[in-house]
Q: What sequence folds into this?
């Protein structure tokens, strides 16, 4: 007889009147708080102005939320976006796309690197992105744990012993037919991000200011989006139109991200070889 994990977690930790504290929000905020401490440590170790991390945090919070929201509507619900673009900014902010967040973060860091004084302190686009991906990997791990607490982004049915029965899953408005053992896809992605976080932190710690420019960004993009492409095979499609596609939207968007990662990684080591020569 198979033994599965019955997942019946309340996404809400507690509430005080109309105020509700949820696991997802707590984990989302925790990613930024810990990430801020890591970036402050990195800035200190590499002799950068530590006060700049306050500005960097603002860039990251706005770009992550806005990019993820816009990405969700543009990639998954374009009709809803065309009917009412302002719902991007309206609570409860249901629907966040990691590909949109990635685009938003890269754009924001490009703008951050062009600030007056950034180049004087060596905070170029590739310098910043190579360090920030350490914290983004950690944030991604926390966010996917938040998805698990919400019983969302559920996996396909499985007979594996670690299958989760999501008692509170609401998949496309349906609940009861989906209370069967499923891949804990959120947990797969969370663990992958934790592995990436520790690897990138180790990679940076070995080289610090000698880290090849673009190498960590390349590693991040290749790791995250190659695995995202593969994990989609054990996940239910998010929206109905994906059921008619050979590759779903998550896989389609992951391909250019992986190719971009290969470009940055190859370029970083080519530049290092030229410098050494």
A:
């Amino acid at each position: 007889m198979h033994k599965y994990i019955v997942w019946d977690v309340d996404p809400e930790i507690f509430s005080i009147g109309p105020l509700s504290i949820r696991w997802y929000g707590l984990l989302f905020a925790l990613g930024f708080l810990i990430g801020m401490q890591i970036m402050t440590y990195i800035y200190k170790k590499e002799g950068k102005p530590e006060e700049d991390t306050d500005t960097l945090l603002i860039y990251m919070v706005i770009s992550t939320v806005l990019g993820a929201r816009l990405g969700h509507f543009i990639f998954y619900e374009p009709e809803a976006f065309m009917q009412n673009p302002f719902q991007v900014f309206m609570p409860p902010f249901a629907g966040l796309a990691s590909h949109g967040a990635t685009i938003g973060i890269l754009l924001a860091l490009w703008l951050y690197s062009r600030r007056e004084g950034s180049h004087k302190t060596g905070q170029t686009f590739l310098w910043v992105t190579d360090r920030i991906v350490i914290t983004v990997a950690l944030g991604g791990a926390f966010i996917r744990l938040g998805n698990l607490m919400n019983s969302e982004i559920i996996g396909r049915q499985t007979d594996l012993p670690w299958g989760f029965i999501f008692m509170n899953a609401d998949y496309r408005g349906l609940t009861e037919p989906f209370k069967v053992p499923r891949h804990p896809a959120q947990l797969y992605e969370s663990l992958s991000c934790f592995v990436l976080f520790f690897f990138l932190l180790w990679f940076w710690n070995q080289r610090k200011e000698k880290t090849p420019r673009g190498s960590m960004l390349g590693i991040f993009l290749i790791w995250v989006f190659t695995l995202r492409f593969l994990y989609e095979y054990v996940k239910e499609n998010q929206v109905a139109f994906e059921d008619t596609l050979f590759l779903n939207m998550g896989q389609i968007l992951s391909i250019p991200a992986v190719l971009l990662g290969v470009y940055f990684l190859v370029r970083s080591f080519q530049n290092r070889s030229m410098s050494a020569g």
